[in-house]
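worker-3 :: picked Flavin prenyltransferase UbiX
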Amino acid sequence: MRVVVGISGASGAALGREVLRQLGAANVETHLVVTAGGERTIAHELGPDGLAEVRRLATFVHDIDDLGASIASGSFGAEAMAVAPCSMRTLSALAHGFGDNLLTRAGDVMLKERRRLVLLPREAPLTEAHLKSMLMLTRMGAMVAPPVPPFYAKPETIDDMIREMAARVVSWLGVDPGEALTRWQGL
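worker-3 :: tokens ->
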């Protein structure tokens, strides 16, 4: 299976890193693309070696400006894509078909090919423009899933919450996250 992972400039870079970790553990071929804002956020939130670490977790890394990259075409055959985290700029660009960088072009490919596209928007509170873009994307077939921790899993640390949220993303991409996902067993 081939999965594209995008990381844009919203807070929550650890989510993208963990999605890559879990996909790698499941032997999924990953194609990473990071926006300039994503690079800045990774450096701030994950430290000076964060970007190198994120890149090492991916099978392939693509430059944000390389609109001729394999993932820019539906014929490449990537089966799914996650943008974790997804900035409101990226969300809006996807909603309005602005394939102006490789991340938004790859997302546009997922939409036009009717393939899985999972977006983790990170913003609060939300404006009407944000909500309209989310509704547009949902109607186009994307899954818009703000990273909300599953409190029923009784996470004890931030890492527990990140692992659980990433496991849900991996599951929505069509990959079994294994033990990383706490499944509801009822009360």
